[in-house]
């Protein structure tokens, strides 16, 4: 059994590769824009998914039984700056992957990683959001994820491809980029502890409530739903618990090794920001038995410790 991970050198891809290595005897191939260092037992391969010939070549060399399609531009702020590039990148990468699989006569199970961002600013009475919630994308990244979701449906119907869709809510954990809110707070705290910056955390909207889930629980869900009998299905991956950004920040500050001030930063505010978003994983739990295993507090501790190590290396 061979599993191919697009975006294999990214935050989620690295955690998925580590999880599959620990839990399966599969051959694991991690694709990235460049051939990055990989875990022992994981094959790294460079592939630009915007280049159809490159996709054909890598699939001929590593014909997969399972594909985890994680590769995408994922930053909402960057999507507002470059909406066209975000949409084109995320759509073309998936189209090239699907077209290549179809043209080469391959028949893997394909997991397509979408996003809860497709649901947008749903009303409070709709919470927790389930998979039947209508799309209401409120930013360019969310639009690109709607496109990816619908492309998965279309190729499944048109070419009988065995595709499972997932819509994860906010995931956190060690190794995440500082472009995301929890990692941003953790990095600022770690840098302030080591005297590299003034003891200040700069913040955006602290009142928004989101559904945070440890990335290690997320990738476990991905493995469990990547099954041929679940082709055509879509699953939320969520904790089901809303937590305010203020609550997250307060917990991280309580872990800090020195007093740190909080200052608002208008540059960190989104043009549109739903006040409360959280999801239901009832369908996922009923289909696979999956439940979150890593406590939220542990996720924050691990994230902050990871940033302490990274900042120390950088400094």
TrEMBL record:
Q: Name one Pfam family in it.
A: GDP_Man_Dehyd
SUPFAM superfamilies with a match to the protein in the record: NAD(P)-binding Rossmann-fold domains
Locate the NAD(P)-binding domain: which residues? 4-300
* Name of the protein described by the UniProt record: NAD-dependent epimerase/dehydratase
Which InterPro entries would you find in this protein's record? NAD(P)-bd_dom (IPR016040), NAD(P)-bd_dom_sf (IPR036291)
Species source reads Sphaerobacter thermophilus (strain ATCC 49802 / DSM 20745 / KCCM 41009 / NCIMB 13125 / S 6022)
Give the top-rank taxon of the lineage listed in the UniProt record for this protein.
Answer: Bacteria
């Amino acid at each position: 059994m061979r599993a191919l991970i697009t975006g294999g050198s990214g935050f989620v891809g690295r955690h998925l590769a580590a999880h599959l290595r620990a839990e399966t005897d599969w051959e694991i191939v991690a694709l990235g824009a460049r051939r990055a260092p990989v875990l022992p037992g994981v094959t790294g391969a460079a592939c630009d998914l915007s280049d159809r010939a490159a996709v054909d070549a890598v699939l001929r060399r590593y014909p997969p039984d399972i594909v985890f399609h994680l590769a995408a531009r994922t930053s909402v702020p960057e999507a507002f700056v470059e909406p066209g590039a975000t949409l084109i990148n995320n759509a073309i990468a998936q189209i090239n992957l699907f077209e290549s699989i179809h043209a080469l006569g391959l028949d893997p199970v394909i997991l397509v990683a979408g996003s809860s961002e497709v649901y947008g600013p749903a009303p409070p009475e709709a919470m927790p959001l389930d998979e039947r919630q209508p799309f209401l994308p409120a930013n360019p990244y969310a639009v690109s994820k709607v496109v990816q979701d619908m492309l998965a449906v279309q190729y499944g119907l048109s070419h009988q491809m065995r595709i499972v869709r997932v819509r994860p809510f906010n995931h956190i954990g060690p190794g995440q980029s500082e472009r995301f809110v929890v990692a941003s707070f953790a990095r600022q705290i770690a840098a302030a502890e080591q005297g590299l910056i003034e003891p200040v955390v700069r913040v955006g909207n602290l009142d928004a409530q989101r559904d945070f889930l440890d990335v290690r629980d997320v990738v476990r869900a991905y493995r469990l739903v990547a099954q041929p009998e679940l082709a055509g299905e879509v699953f939320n991956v969520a904790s089901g618990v809303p937590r305010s950004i203020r609550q997250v920040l307060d917990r991280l500050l309580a872990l800090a090794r020195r007093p740190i001030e909080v200052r608002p930063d208008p540059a960190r505010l989104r043009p549109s920001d739903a006040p409360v978003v959280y999801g239901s994983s009832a369908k996922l739990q009923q289909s696979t038995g999956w439940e979150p295993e890593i406590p939220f507090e542990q996720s924050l501790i691990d994230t902050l410790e990871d940033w302490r190590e990274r900042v120390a290396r950088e400094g």
